[in-house]
């Protein structure tokens, strides 16, 4: 076979790979017909809810644990008699770490399974992908992960932290520790880019310098250059918004380059107990995290949650913030439905304001206007045992402010 | 200055990874002209081999040392099976080979998902390889990257020597240069093909072991690497090892430099543009094999 021929076939191969990638991107359902919304099917003695998480791909490391804790909440509610006398019947779908797949599966859960509510999504990219689907169908999503704020959809309840409950307290903590300069490292999608925009606005107003800003594609595992840049910048601290298992490669490289928590601490906003276990404590000991819940958070509600989770999934399984927020989401939905006396989405929404739940993280209150919840901010330090211990907390629940309207320095953001 | 050397080393180590993943392909694609889309999955098999061995061998250093030969044999055996069962029947039909091996790659990915689960897994690195060598002037060189560089260079040296000096190497070169003439001279070409495939796939297994030191192991890790590997071989020139070696390091340094001066995404674009421009100028790649073959 001639060399020329070999190359032409190779070109064919590459086209094939590209075509496969494009079909994956293009398979989004764009059914514009159902503007009236789909009513949930609650005719039987059960009520269906959708669970939409990535069980495969780069995000599975994190999202599988969220699925597990949603199931725990469903089991607890069913054991206590269900919601309005109906047992919850969970319908699970795999978002496969692929945003168009999330949109497709959301459409399926709403239109085919006719679920009363959907619990799930992790990355903001997946939330942005499903948002129009939920808005078009007037269906409910409970989103359990901290995110970049600047969003408020009438059909999404955000049970994780918005920026003023996580990133801003994280920056306040760094400032109180005398940090004058930071380096920003993040995955290349909407959450890290927006979060870093907010961090830069904060830095300008608070006399901090941002020495550099770098992004790696989700799933990227080559951090040699980025770590070199971080190291030579001489920053006081690193603010890390990497997601998924890029963190594994980043922290391995960080340690290999001779950097440590003592020399240049890294504050991470997407590394919780489960990820610590996956990355390895030898790479993470002493590094900081910003969340609203840790497995070590004191209180009876948390002891009960941790014990129940470990009894169901194994003693070696840690609990983490997004898992807790997902668990809380299911219980909040139950409380809203019972207050409304119906599964109807609009009735549930108008019943939501002021609903409280004695959550593992402490008391949380739903703010009906923003559909976010008031949560206590907590900064933690990763220990040698893989658990995170709190070094600072906000003392009381912080009211959600997704658009940062109460912060003058954030006025230029949109 | 420190940064400059640091970046140079980062570039070289990216090059070493590229070289390791492309070396096996330089044999099977470069020498035999078989487009094996499942090559990335052999890398994955090598990585999972390390993971499995670490479940039973507790010492991270020992398990890594054992993983190198075992992964070579595991991936090599998978390669031979693929060659004997499918590719051999399709030597005259390259497009079918392409589709069939792509199918095999999807099957292997799903198999990995079924056996090891969808979430990526990690291995523990030996303590020795998590540290670094500190040089004067604040420059540090990561031990795991040094190890990968040494492994890549050792693999190239061993392969070059094997091709130059051993009777097997002579037979492989004879088949590459002129298959028909080799056959009429009494060389069992099909057996040579099988051996070449074993070596090429085994090298992919080695690459897999090395990659566990840098990042996570997952069912799709092969897909992410296969295009880079093909690029190195195509730009390096088919039928020659030295082209792949030079191109791997050149692309590594270009990527690291571009990334330092701009961002990761822009650096990738720079690398692709450079490759396209280069292939316009030298469509045959950096080096070509001169043969009298009429094919």
Automatic annotation (TrEMBL), chain B:
GO BP, one annotated term: amino acid transport
Keyword Lyase assigned: no
Record's GO cellular component terms: plasma membrane
Source taxon at top rank: Bacteria
Pfam families (alphabetical): BPD_transp_2
Annotated localization: Cell membrane
Bilayer topology: Multi-pass membrane protein
Molecular function, one GO term: transmembrane transporter activity
Alphabetically ordered keywords of this record: Amino-acid transport, Cell membrane, Membrane, Transmembrane, Transmembrane helix, Transport
Residues annotated as transmembrane: 6-27, 59-82, 146-163, 197-217, 229-254, 261-281
Similarity comment: family membership: Belongs to the binding-protein-dependent transport system permease family. LivHM subfamily.
This protein's name: High-affinity branched-chain amino acid transpor t system permease protein BraD
Organism annotation: Micromonospora saelicesensis
């Amino acid at each position: 076979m001639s060399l020329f021929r070999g190359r032409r076939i190779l070109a064919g191969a590459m086209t094939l790979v590209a075509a496969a990638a494009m079909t994956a991107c293009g398979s989004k359902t764009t059914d514009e017909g159902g503007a009236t919304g789909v009513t949930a099917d609650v005719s039987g003695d059960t009520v269906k809810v959708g669970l939409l998480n990535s069980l495969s791909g780069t995000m599975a490391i994190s999202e599988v644990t969220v699925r597990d804790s949603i199931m725990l909440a469903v089991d607890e509610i069913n054991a206590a008699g269900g919601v309005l006398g109906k047992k919850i019947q969970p319908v699970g779908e795999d978002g496969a770490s692929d945003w168009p797949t999330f949109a497709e599966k959301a459409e399926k859960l709403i239109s085919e399974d006719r679920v009363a509510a959907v619990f799930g999504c992790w990355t903001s990219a997946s939330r942005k992908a499903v948002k129009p689907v939920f808005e078009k169908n007037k269906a409910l999503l409970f989103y359990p992960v901290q995110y970049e704020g600047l969003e408020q959809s009438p059909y999404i309840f955000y049970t994780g932290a918005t920026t003023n409950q996580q990133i801003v307290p994280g920056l306040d903590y760094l400032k109180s520790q005398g940090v004058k300069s930071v380096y920003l490292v993040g995955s290349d999608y909407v959450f890290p880019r927006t979060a870093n925009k907010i961090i830069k606005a904060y830095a300008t107003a608070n006399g901090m310098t941002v020495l550099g800003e770098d992004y790696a594609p989700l799933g990227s595992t080559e951090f040699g250059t980025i770590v070199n840049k971080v190291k030579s910048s001489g920053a006081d601290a690193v603010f890390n918004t990497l997601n998924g298992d890029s963190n594994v490669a980043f922290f391995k490289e960080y340690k290999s380059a001779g950097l440590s928590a003592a020399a240049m601490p890294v504050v991470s906003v997407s590394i919780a107990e489960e990820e610590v276990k996956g990355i390895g404590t030898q790479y993470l000991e002493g590094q900081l995290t910003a969340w609203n819940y840790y497995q070590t958070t004191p209180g009876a509600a948390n002891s009960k949650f941790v014990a129940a989770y470990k009894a169901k999934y194994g003693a070696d399984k840690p609990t983490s913030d997004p898992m807790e927020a997902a668990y809380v989401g299911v219980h909040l939905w139950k409380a809203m439905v019972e207050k409304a006396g119906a599964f109807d989405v609009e009735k549930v929404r108008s019943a939501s304001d002021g609903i409280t739940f004695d959550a593992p993280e402490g008391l949380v209150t739903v703010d009906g206007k923003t559909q976010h919840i008031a949560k206590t901010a907590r900064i933690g330090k990763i220990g040698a045992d893989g658990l995170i211990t709190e070094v600072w907390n906000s003392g009381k629940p912080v009211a959600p402010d997704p658009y940062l309207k109460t912060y003058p320095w954030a006025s230029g953001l949109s | 200055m420190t940064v400059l050397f640091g970046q140079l080393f980062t570039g070289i180590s990216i090059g070493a990874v590229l070289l390791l993943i492309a070396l096996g392909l330089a044999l099977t694609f470069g020498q035999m002209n078989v487009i094996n889309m499942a090559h990335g999955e052999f890398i994955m098999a090598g990585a999972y081999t390390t993971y499995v061995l670490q479940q039973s061998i507790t010492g991270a250093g020992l398990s890594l040392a054992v993983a190198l030969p075992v992964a070579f044999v595991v991936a090599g055996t998978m390669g031979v099976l693929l060659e004997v069962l499918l590719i051999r029947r399709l030597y005259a039909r390259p497009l079918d080979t392409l589709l069939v091996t792509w199918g095999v790659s999807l099957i292997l990915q799903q198999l990995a998902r079924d056996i090891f689960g969808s979430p990526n897994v990690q291995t523990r690195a030996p303590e020795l390889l998590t540290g670094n060598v500190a040089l004067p002037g604040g420059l540090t060189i990561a031990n795991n990257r040094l190890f990968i560089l040494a492994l890549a260079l050792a693999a190239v040296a061993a392969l070059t020597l094997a091709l130059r000096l051993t009777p097997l190497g002579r037979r492989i070169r004879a088949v590459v240069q002129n298959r028909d003439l080799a056959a009429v001279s009494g060389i069992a070409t099909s057996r040579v093909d099988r051996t070449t495939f074993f070596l090429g796939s085994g090298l992919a297994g080695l690459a897999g072991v090395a990659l566990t030191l840098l990042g996570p192991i997952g069912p799709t890790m092969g897909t992410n690497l296969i295009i880079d590997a093909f690029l190195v071989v195509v730009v390096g020139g088919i039928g020659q090892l030295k082209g792949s070696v030079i191109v791997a390091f050149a692309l590594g340094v270009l990527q690291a430099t571009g990334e330092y001066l701009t961002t990761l995404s822009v650096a990738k674009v720079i690398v692709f543009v450079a490759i396209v421009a280069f292939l316009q100028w030298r469509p045959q790649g950096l080096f070509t094999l001169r043969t009298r073959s009429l094919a």
